[in-house]
Amino acid sequence: MKKYVVAITGASGIVYGMTLMIFLAKAYNVDLIISESAFSVMSHELSPELKDIESVKLKTKDLDVRVYSERDFYAPIASGSNKIDGMFIVPCSMKTLSAIASGFADNLITRAADVMIKEGRKLIVSPREMPFSSIHLENMLKLSRLGVVIAPPVPAFYHNPQGLEDMINFVVGKLLDLMGIENDLYRRWNG
Ligand SMILES: Cc1cc2nc3c(=O)[nH]c(=O)nc-3n(C[C@H](O)[C@H](O)[C@H](O)COP(=O)(O)O)c2cc1C
Questions:
Q1: Looking at ligand 1, which atom is closest to the CA of residue 70?
Q2: CA of 188 relative to ligand 1 center, distance in Å
Q3: Could you report the per-residue pLDDT of 110-137, keeping only the tens digit for each?
Q4: Going by C-beta distance under 8 Å and a sequence separation of 6 or more, which residues neighbour residue 52?
């Protein structure tokens, strides 16, 4: 079975990462890493109950998902010897973006991303900020030149979204497309 890593950092739009993780867990092996800052954004944006790793483990207990703290460098995904088919960072904060762009692997998310880059594996990063500064854009360009896919969570309107769920599914569906994973989460443009 294919194995994917989903990392959620402390940027707005935690729902994208959670929706992606739940979709993947239906058919694949999933390792989920949540940064410490992400817990505070998650409890604010999704539910006050989702405030720490134990509460996320409880929420995902029926899924094929292993949840890791950002401090867990003993996790298999910290090593290039562990075979991973792809990694998503959704949403990706400017801090994590910057750390990856400069090889500053001080937590499990930035270390796993560093491993993906050095091993030539697929890494999809969904940076969330508005507006982007030149620092952010330079970091994205640097990663893009290394083969990292930069896919910000930008909604579209050509599929006539009927609400928030359609807009979330559009972004998640596009991220899955970029990894080459079949999905029908959004209505495609047929001309
Ligand atoms: C409610 C809330 C929303 C935030 N949204 C963003 C955001 O959209 N983009 C961003 O780069 N940082 C955002 N931040 C700041 C990050 O959480 C902060 O820079 C943090 O250090 C990121 O750490 P991490 O990358 O390890 O998760 C937000 C913080 C809070 C409390």
A1: 26
A2: 31
A3: 999 999 999 999 999 999 999 999 999 9
A4: 39
Residue where the block lists tokens 């982007």:
132
**Ligand 1 mean position to 79 CA, how many Å?**
26
Residue type, 98: S
**The two three-digit tokens of residue 167, written as one number:** 């807009």
Residue nearest to atom 3 of ligand 1 (CA): 12
Taking the centre of ligand 1 as the mean of its atom positions, its distance from the CA of residue 68, in whole angstroms, is 19
Residue whose C-alpha is closest to residue 122's, from 153, 90, 84, 65: 84
Please count the residues of the chain.
Answer: 191
Task: Please identify every stretch of the chain with a pLDDT value under 70, giving residue numbers as ranges.
Answer: none
Pocket test for ligand 1, best of 93, 98, 106 (most atoms within 8 A of CB): 93
Give the sign of the dihedral formed by CA 185, CA 146, CA 127, CA 154. negative
Residue where the block lists tokens 């949840």: 67
The amino acid that residue 144 corresponds to is S
